[in-house]
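Appendix B, example 12.
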Amino acid sequence: MLKKPPPVAIRGNPLSGAGLRCHPAVVFAGVLIAIFLLHLPLLELPYFWDEAGYYVPAARDLLLSGSLIPHTTVSNAHPPLVMAWLALWWKCVGYAPLVTRSAMLMVAAFTLLGVFRLAQRVANTQVAIASTLCTALYPVFFAQSSLAQVDLAAAGLIFWGLCAYLEERSVATAIWFSLAALAKETAILAPLAVVGWEALRFVVPQGLVAPKASSLRSLWQSSDAESDGRSSRRIFPLLFPLVPLILWYAYHYARTGYVFGNPEFFRYNVAATLNPWRFLLALLLRLWQVFGYMHLWLLTLGMLLAMLLPPLKEDEDLDVERPRIAIPVQMIFLVVAATYIVTMALIGGAELARYMLPAVPLVIIVAVSTLRRRLRYWPAAVAVVAIAFVAAWFWNPPYGFAPEDNLAYRDYIVLHQDAERFLEARYPMAHVLTAWPASDELARPWLGYVTRPVQVVRIEDFSLEEVLSAADFRSHFEVALVFSTKYEPAHPLLDRWDASLGKAWTDLKRRFFGYHRDLPPAAAAQILGGRIVFSEERRGQWAAVIEMEQSQVQDAAVRPQ
C-alpha cells in the first residue's frame, strides 16, 4: 500500500480536528466568562505598581483633558492605544477599578482568542484548545490579564498579526501589527523580525550547491521563483506599522521635546543597559523567562523528552503520522521569540517577565503540538502543566521575582490598603515619609487607597543609605510608611547551595540591575528614632507604620493646612 504523505501546510492540517471548528465569537465568549470568573476576587483591587505610577494616570489625563501626552506623570512615550481604551470605558461606564479590570479582561480574552486562532491555523483545534488553556493559566499571563498595563495587549495584537500574515491577508497584517505598535512600541520587533527572516532567504542560498540551497530554502514558506516574488510583496504590510509609530514619536517630540520619553526613562531603559556583561546576564534571564519561568520548564522539558519518541499515527489505516507544525512556521515563531529575547536583554532597565509575553505563547503552541504529535497520553501531560501553572499562582519561587508575575501582587495591594487606611485614620494631618509607589498611593485618592490626599515626604527606597539620609531631616515628617519594595525569599535558592555564590549573584544584581536590600521595619524604626505602631506580613512581603516622637505627631495634628 502506498503511503499518503502527511499534510504540512501553512494554513493548517486538514486531517486533525477538521470537524472541531468553533466560531470565534463562541470562543471569545467562553474565554471571557471563564477568566472573568477566575478573576472575580481581584476585580475591585486598587491599582498596583506601574498601573498607579503611569498607565492609570496617563489614561485619566486622556479622559479629563483629551491629551494623549500625560501631564500628571512624566511621559514615557508609550503609544496611547491602551490608555485610550481605558478612557473610553471610563467615559461610558464610569471611573472605578472594577471597570478598569473588566476592560483589561476583555483585552485578555481577545488575546487568548488570538492564541487560539493562531494555534488552530498552524496546527489543529485540539492543539489550539490546549495551548489557549496553558496560556490563560500561565501565572504571568494570568496576573497581567486584569492589570492596566500594555504588554499583554501588544502581545495579543501580535498574535492576530502573525495569523493574518500566515493567511496571506496583507491588509489585516498591516492593521494588526500597526495596532500592536500603537499598544506598545516594542511590538514593532515582531513584524521587523519576520521582515528580516523573509529577506534572509534571498541572501543565504546564494553561492551554495543545489542540494544545500534546496535544504536551506525549505526553512521558508516557499522555494519557487513565483512564490519568492509574492513573498517580497508580502514584506510591505510588515513594514507599514513603522508609519503610525513614527508619526506617534513625531507628535510626542513636537509636544514634549523628547522622542523616546523623558531623559531619565531613556537612560534607565537604554543608555544604562548597554554593557556586554549586563547583556549576557540579562540574556540568561530572558531565556529562563521564555522557557522555564513559573513552571514553564515542565512544558519545555516535556517537549524535549517527547522529541525522543517517534511520531504517532494520525490514521492507522492510511499509515499517516500526526503532522507537525510546518517547519517554516516554526522558524517564524523562533525568529520572533529570539528577536524579543535578544532585544529585551539589550534594553529595558527592569528585567520584567511581562516583556516576554509575545514570545511565551509561541513556545507553548510549539510545545503542545509536539506533545500531541509524539505522546499518546498528551492530554494528561497538558493537564499536569496546567495544574503546575495554577499552583504557581499562589506559590512564590525560592528566588527574587516581581510580585506582578503571580498573585503576590494581591498580597502587596492588601498590605498597602491595610497600612494606608491605618495611617489615614490615625494620622490624617501628618507628613509621611515613604517611597514610590506608596507616595502616589497616599497623594492620589483616585488610585483607591485613601479617601483624601496625604502629605508625603519621598525617598527612593528603604535601603540603609536612604534611611540614614532620611534620619538627617526627621523633623520634616511625623510618620513613616515602610514596606518591602521587592519580594525576598526567606532562604534564597543560591544561598542554599553556596553562600559565596549567592553573594556573588547579589553583587551582580546590585551592579547591573539596581538591586538593593530593604531594611526590616525594626531597623528602620531604630535609625529614624521612632516606634512601630502597625506591622503586617504576607508571604514574604511586609508593610509597617513607624511613629516618630509623640510631640511631633501632636504638633502635626494641630498644624494649619
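The radius of gyration is 26 Å. Confidence is low (pLDDT under 50) at residues 1-19, 551-561.
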